[in-house]
Design goal:
The complex is a heterodimer of chains A (about 260) and B (about 210). Chain A has about 260 residues and is α/β, with parallel strands linked by helices. Chain A has helices spanning about 35-40, 55-75, 85-95, 105-110, 115-120, 155-165, 185-195, 210-215, 230, 235-245, and strands at about 5-15, 15-20, 50, 80, 100-105, 125-135, 140-145, 150-155, 170-175, 200-205, 225. Chain A is globular. Chain B has helices spanning about 15-25, 35-40, 50-60, 65-70, 80-85, 195-205, and strands at about 5, 30, 45, 75-80, 90, 95-100, 105-110, 125-130, 130-135, 145-150, 155-160, 165-170, 175-180, 185. The chains are: A alpha/beta (about 260), B alpha/beta (about 210).
Chain lengths: ~260, ~210
């Protein structure tokens, strides 16, 4: 036995409230990210990812406070992404208690951003988030604006460039699979995982537990991220871990 | 009354470790670099993240290095992650950096580790891995082989194997926890290792070497 694969639930948070809905029974407040994170922690989540989708400045300052509360109560790693544009943004989130930050569009508009941030804060806290869409057989490009605008950048080359530049992990989302419930884009996941030396988190498309297993085996991901299958109580994290372990995948079961 | 000084030399997130220590019962937790506070504290925690070169430079600039050396014979100190690596004599990181030298040994790069099937392993070593214990009070109530959260690309290779109190496998077997006199140090992050991590911090607070 050795390093375990990770299950990472993802919360979309707007102005300190979880959006896209969470429908657990017996939650006091289904919109409170801290309460939900505690629930996931108790169920065995190996990490928590928190995506800030606040549009306003006020919403972003609320996020810092939410991260602070979460880090005071949940003692597993916490990654925060969404709208991080400056080294000042990174410093503020790390000071609030985030362990890692995930960088997406700021890296595209300024390819030096990740290397500079890695030099200042260390690779261990920098995740490069990549939203990719298939453009031809075996070829994927980076898309922005929710998958509507192509940058023309090859996703695999970008993953290699950013990780060689200092990103310590890749959060890889297939824009084709996201929201479909049909499973991860396994060819994309595997291509990126084989191309980079750092861990890869598969994201986008999970509809059932078998999809999680496929991401880790066929996709060769090191971790799987999912939102809706956990939020709506379709499957618990505990159930997912038991299922994956039964497939022969090494999981952290003692929590 | 347990007063803990978390040694602050400007390297990253100290909030989590402070909160975790409060959660397990520390009466007072000071995030500090003040020599008076460090002297008042009953116990010290030496965190660390980022590059070893920057950590060592900041530690020396703030006088933290001397506080750590003084602790060895007289005050319980817990080193975490780069705070463990800094205790050794030398690190391969950043083209070679001298550490505090409390324990002879080298901090080495993982290089190109492979699993049992000769497939390449990812670096950094990131995630939950097992720690195989040598008996020590810091492991009280923690089952042998429990998983803790790791994130690092370099590992400690102390010259004296008898100071190792924890071993982890990642391409090779390495020392993931060590202890000697008043110092205990771990490569993983107890403040991010859920129930077992909190238990380890609680054990540190009640440890009387």
């Amino acid at each position: 036995m050795t390093l375990a694969k990770r299950i990472i639930p993802c919360l979309d948070v707007d102005s300190g409230r979880v959006v896209k809905g969470v429908r657990f029974v017996d939650l006091r407040d289904a919109g409170d990210p801290v309460e939900i994170a505690r629930r996931y922690d108790a169920a065995g989540a190996d990490e928590i990812t928190f995506l800030d989708i606040s549009a306003s400045h006020e919403g972003r300052s609320t996020t810092l406070h939410t991260v602070e509360r979460m880090a005071s109560e949940v003692f597993v790693p916490l990654t925060v992404g969404g709208g991080i544009r400056t080294e000042h943004d990174i410093r503020a989130l790390l000071n609030a208690g985030a362990d890692k930050v995930s960088i997406n569009s700021a890296a595209i508009s300024n390819p030096d951003f990740v290397p500079r941030a890695a030099d200042r804060f260390g690779s261990q806290c920098l995740v490069i988030a990549i939203d990719a869409k298939q453009v031809a057989e075996g070829r994927w490009e980076i898309f922005t604006h929710g998958g509507r605008r192509s940058t023309g950048i090859d996703a695999i080359e970008w993953a290699v460039r950013m990780t060689e530049g200092g990103a310590g992990e890749v959060l890889l989302t297939s824009m084709d699979a996201d929201g479909t419930g049909q499973g991860y884009d396994l060819a994309l996941t595997r291509a990126v995982s084989d191309a980079v030396r750092v861990p890869v988190i598969a994201s986008g498309g999970v509809g059932n537990l078998e999809h999680l297993a496929q991401g880790l085996t066929k996709g060769r991901a090191d971790a799987v991220l999912a939102a809706s299958i956990f939020h709506f109580g379709q499957h618990s994290i505990t159930e997912a871990k038991q299922y994956l372990q039964a497939q022969g995948i090494v999981m952290r079961m003692d929590y | 009354m347990t007063r803990v000084a978390v040694l602050d030399y400007g390297m990253g997130n100290l909030h989590s470790v402070a909160k975790a220590l409060e959660t397990v019962g520390a009466d007072q937790v000071w995030i500090t670099r003040s020599p008076e506070r460090i002297e008042q504290a009953d116990r010290l925690v030496l965190p660390g993240q980022g590059a070893m070169r920057d950590c060592m430079a900041a530690m020396t600039a703030e006088g933290i290095d001397q506080a750590v050396r003084n602790a060895l014979h007289r005050k319980p100190l817990l080193g975490i992650c780069v705070g463990m690596q800094a205790l050794l004599g030398f690190s391969e990181e950043n083209g070679g950096v001298d550490g505090l030298g409390l324990f002879p040994g080298t901090v080495r790069f993982f290089g190109s580790p492979q699993d049992h099937d000769a497939r390449p392993l990812k670096v950094p070593h990131m995630g939950w891995n097992e720690v195989w214990q040598t008996p020590h009070p810091i492991w009280e109530k923690i089952p042998n082989g429990s998983r803790f959260y790791f994130v690092h690309s370099y590992y400690c290779a102390p010259e004296n194997p008898s100071i190792s109190i924890g071993q982890t496998e990642y391409g090779l077997n390495y020392c993931s926890a060590l202890a000697h006199e008043h110092v205990v140090a771990v490569q993983f992050h107890p403040e991010k290792s859920a129930r077992h991590g909190l238990q380890l911090l609680a054990n540190f607070l009640s440890w009387n070497p």
